[in-house]
Specification:
Layout (H helix, E strand, L loop, with lengths): L11 E7 L6 H9 L7 H6 L6 E6 L5 E6 L7 H8 L4 E7 L6 H12 L5 E6 L6 H15 L9 E3 L8 H12 L12 E3 L2 E5 L3 E7 L4 E3 L3 E5 L3 E10 L2 E3 L1 E3 L3 E7 L11 E3 L6 E11 L7 E2 L2 E7 L2 E9 L20 E2 L4 E13 L5 E6 L5 E9 L9 H12 L2 H10 L5 E2 H8 L3 H13 L3 E5 L2 E4 H21 L6 E2 H7 L6 H13 L3 E4 L2 E4 L8 H16 L7 H11 L3 H17 L3 E3 L5 E3 H17 L2 E2 L1 H8 L3 H14 L2 E4 L2 E4 L3
Parallel strand pairs: 1-3, 1-4, 4-5, 5-6
Antiparallel strand pairs: 2-3, 7-16, 8-9, 9-15, 10-14, 11-12, 11-16, 12-13, 12-15, 17-22, 17-24, 18-21, 19-20, 19-23, 20-22, 23-24, 25-27, 26-27, 28-30, 29-30, 31-32, 33-35, 34-35
Helix pairs in contact: 9-10, 11-13, 14-16, 15-16, 18-19
Bound molecules: guanosine-5'-diphosphate and magnesium ion (MG).
């Protein structure tokens, strides 16, 4: 049966248990839902929870809750962390007969680090103690919660055995969940994989809490950090097949495209292109207040994010020098540390890539012995290696708490290219829609520009690219008065190191469209003054034309007439430069045609040649070199380059030793 998922996300919630081993978490979940979450044979045999368990519950108020039951034993904290990542509310279970115990504290520290701000304390096993005892344990719990976001969490005495207090517990659950904001359904899907198994006929099945977005049968998702695309064959929510799974639901997906042994807890399924794995993540790190000593930089740690655990080093980017070190190795001068209860900007340098998003909360445990020491928030999920320099820390501060505008400007400031909205959005870890809107506003304010629709650049970068092009065009025009201007290709390649290619094209087009530069053939010059070649250059060109034409097709070679132009202009470097201007002008105006390294002809001579060839082909289908020599009245020395030129321009077509008529 296909059940359409509840359309409103506000009616969905994920609740995680927390608390010391044997305090009655699993019994409470079973009593509330009828599901025994200790499903592994070993769990049944030993009577303890080892891995995560999952159970659905519909509250009296109609909220569809997915309960994640976690193991309490300190050896299985890693499993606890894999499940607790996406919860909306914590059900902190404290046995009334035992009170607050080590994993009560550790689990509480973890959910605080993960930013869980809703909670209920279930004082289980209340059937075993007197009411004065309950009052005392309640005081202890209150003291434990004081000063935390869970300070006002209700403490509900109850019993999984007698059922006492369970109605009150459910009522509290509804009260707390009433104000739960809906998860974002429109953002790209993101799901941390917490279990993987095979199902006969369906292949690989993964489960996890859908953190955001929606997943439908047939969707393509990216499996990260591996980076393969998979297709969703079937989606289930608490054992029922659905057309669409929504953010906030415990979800099982049968996926196609990857082997069972290529997927593991800690992997992510995300909308393709939405997140990028990285080995360097910039964060704000907080050390737990009850940690016994300062935490030094560069220690090996375990990062827990989503359902993943990755080893790496926590490199502090700010902090203090510890007064007292806890081992000889930490006494290096200038080594930074964080005080208990303090925080610092830091970079996690990881041994395997992680898939993080800005704002993700995480937990840090020490490498050995394994203890929860703190946690924090992701600032930049794909960080560059950051040295501890004033500038880079200042940039990170902008990324941590700056407005989206400030963050965009900071990021775009170091970008020499125009970037697509989606790319910019990924850089600042915000949605494409939101970033598009902010960029539009900023372009009205003149801080960014959009030279091509959907491509962005900081306004100062744009202005300097345009300015640089205009400057080079202007310089060239001043230096080469006789020429119309610089060739576009020369302009672009000259600026190659300074202006990236697509940016050059956009800036060039905008200068042209804005009338700041003008173009003729492939030549570019500043607009404004009408261009006239200098009179002496024009006169010298006329003289060159006359000399060439006097010689018939047996023209003097180019070096020779350039030398005589130079000589007539006084010789030396100035004369040579003048002669080269004359040659360049002649070619630009189309009055001189260069047929080879050695020879130039006037346009009139070329027209004459074209006419002679046409006349020849009117009588004869082919021409050979000897025939051409007669036709032009020249020796082989001129005939060969002229024939090769007429092949190039298409007047003749080569056929063995002869030429046939081309386009004439
Ligand atoms: N009397 C009494 N025993 C309970 C209650 N809740 C759990 N227990 C017992 O406490 C033991 C540990 O419970 P369990 O749910 O496995 O604890 P967990 O490790 O926190 O999941 C089991 O033997 C349960 O039967 C309760 O409310 N009253
Ligand atoms: Mg249990």
């Amino acid at each position: 049966m296909t059940v359409r998922a509840e359309p409103t996300a506000t009616r969905l919630a994920i609740v995680g248990t927390a608390g010391h081993i044997d305090h009655g978490k699993t019994a409470l979940v079973r009593r509330l839902t009828g599901v025994d979450t200790d499903r592994l044979p070993e769990e049944k045999r030993r009577g303890i929870s080892i891995d995560l368990g999952f159970a659905p519950l519909v509250t009296p108020g109609g909220v569809r809750v997915g309960i994640v039951d976690v193991p309490g034993h300190e050896r299985f904290i890693k499993n606890m962390l894999a499940g607790v990542g996406g919860i909306d509310l914590v059900l902190l279970v404290v046995a009334a007969d035992e009170g607050v115990m080590p994993q009560t504290r550790e689990h509480l520290a973890i959910v605080k680090m993960l930013g869980v701000s809703r909670g209920i304390v279930a004082l289980t096993k209340s059937d075993l103690v007197e009411s004065e005892w309950i009052a005392m344990v309640t005081r202890d719990v209150r003291a434990l919660l004081a000063g935390s976001p869970l300070a006002d969490a209700p403490v509900v005495p109850c019993s999984a055995v007698t059922g006492l207090g369970l109605d009150a517990l459910l009522a509290e659950l509804d009260r707390q969940l009433a104000s739960l904001p809906g998860r974002s359904l429109d953002e790209p899907a993101r799901l941390p994989v917490d279990r993987v198994f095979s199902v006969e006929g369906f292949g690989t099945v993964i489960t996890g809490t859908l953190w955001r977005g929606r997943v439908r049968t047939g969707d393509t998702l990216a499996l990260l950090p591996r980076g393969v695309e998979v297709r969703v064959r079937r989606a289930q929510v608490h054992g029922k097949t659905v057309e669409e799974a929504l953010a906030g639901q415990r979800t099982a997906l049968a996926i196609h495209g990857v082997e069972r042994d290529k997927v593991a807890r800690g992997d992510w399924l995300v909308a393709p292109g939405s997140l990028q794995p990285s080995r360097a993540v910039d964060v704000r790190f907080e050390l737990l207040a009850d940690h016994p000593r300062p935490w030094p930089s560069n220690r090996r740690v375990r990062l827990h994010l989503g359902a993943s655990e990755v080893l790496g080093r926590l490199v502090l980017l700010e902090g203090e020098n510890p007064e007292k070190s806890d081992s000889a190795g930490d006494r290096a001068p200038g080594r930074l540390a964080v005080r208990p209860g303090g925080s610092a900007l830091a970079q996690l340098r990881l041994e395997r890539p992680v898939v993080a998003a800005r704002g993700d909360r995480f937990v840090i445990r020490s490498y050995s012995p394994q203890r929860t020491i703190g946690g924090g928030v992701v600032i930049d999920p794909v960080a560059e290696k950051r040295r501890r320099r004033g500038g880079s820390v200042a940039q990170l501060v902008v990324h941590e708490s700056g407005s989206i505008e400030a963050r965009l400007l900071e990021r775009l400031g170091s970008e020499p290219r125009m970037l697509a909205t989606a790319h910019v959005a990924q850089m600042v870890s915000e949605s494409e829609v939101a970033v598009g809107q902010v960029l539009e506003q900023m372009s009205v304010g003149g801080e960014v520009v959009q030279p091509i629709p959907g491509r962005w650049l900081r306004a100062d970068r744009w202005a300097s690219a345009r300015g640089e092009i205009a400057r080079v065009v202007g310089d060239y025009a001043t230096r080469h008065l006789a020429r119309f201007g610089i060739a576009k290709g020369e302009l672009k390649s000259g600026l190659k190191g300074a202006i990236e290619s697509t940016l050059f094209d956009a800036a060039f087009e905008s200068l042209l469209a804005g009338g700041e530069i003008v173009m003729r053939a492939d030549r570019v010059r500043p607009a404004g003054s009408s261009w006239e070649p200098p009179a002496d250059v024009a006169r010298a060109l006329e003289k060159v034309e006359a000399d060439l034409e006097t010689a018939g097709f047996g023209v003097p070679d180019t070096a020779t007439w350039l030398a005589s132009v130079s000589h007539a202009h006084g010789g030396g470097p100035a004369g040579a430069a003048f002669a080269s201007e004359v040659g360049a002008l002649g070619q630009f105006l189309g009055r001189l045609v260069r047929v080879s390294q050695e020879y130039c002809y006037t346009a009139r001579q070329m027209d004459d040649l074209e006419a002679r060839l046409a006349k020849h082909f009117a009588k004869s289908p082919t021409i050979n070199v000897a025939g051409f020599k007669d036709l032009a009245g020249v020796s082989r020395k001129w005939a060969v380059p002229l024939l090769e030129h007429s092949d190039r321009v298409g007047w003749t077509v080569r056929a063995g030793d002869e030429r046939k008529r081309g386009r004439l």
